[in-house]
Design brief:
- The chain is mainly alpha-helical.
- The chain folds into two domains: about 1-75, no CATH class; about 130-195, no CATH class.
- It has five helices and four strands, in the order ββαββαααα.
């Protein structure tokens, strides 16, 4: 297995620096941190003025804890419950595209989805392999090509590029929901048809 660093993750040299006496050491919170890791927090929000510095620190801490959790898993036998050899095969067939900086946010979302599939029983023991993902990749590649063709045709010269980008971004989440709902509907119809 090849271990790949994730974006923004420090390689195992750990120690916590904090300028505020109220900051409790991680050990007192029963948090296991790799030896030598440096955790350094700098809050640009002014302290003691009611501008949200505490909330900013809390959100940053939660994000850091999630990052540490993901990094710890990646340093082991896989990531998010997906074995390392499965991650390697997903990269070989182009489903994951890690680079020298690690996995992209899209790759992480794919890995998390694969973890949920595997937890639900979709794994090698029931006959499902990484190669099943290629069916979705092929279908989505054709769909994305057609979508880009339509967007270019309809938006070219109709609005400034920044407005076109904003329009595309605003449609991303509803499109995800639409595709998921339509897929579920069509799957149920097909299963019922085959009864």
């Amino acid at each position: 297995m090849t271990t790949r660093p994730l974006p923004g993750h420090y390689h195992r040299h750990c120690h916590c620096r904090c300028r505020y006496p109220s900051c409790r050491p991680l050990a007192s919170l029963r948090v296991s941190v790799p030896a030598g890791l440096v955790l350094e927090a700098t809050n640009a929000v002014p302290h003691g003025r009611g501008m949200g510095s505490s909330a900013t620190a809390i959100v940053s801490g939660v994000a850091a804890a999630q990052g540490l959790s993901v990094c710890a898993q990646a340093a082991g036998d896989g990531l998010a419950g997906v074995p390392g050899e499965v991650l390697d095969r997903l990269a070989e067939i182009g489903i994951l595209t890690p680079n020298s900086k690690g996995y992209s946010p899209s790759d992480i979302a794919i890995i998390e989805a694969m973890s949920r599939f595997r937890a639900g029983g979709y794994d090698e023991q029931t006959g499902f392999t990484v190669y099943d993902t290629l069916r979705y990749k092929r279908a989505l590649e054709a769909l994305v090509k057609e979508e880009v063709d339509v967007l270019v045709e309809r938006l070219k010269g109709q609005m400034p590029p920044d407005r076109a980008v904003a329009l595309i971004e605003s449609g991303a989440e509803p499109l995800r929901d639409f595709i998921a709902a339509l897929h579920t509907k069509l799957m149920v119809e097909e299963v019922e048809r085959r009864r």
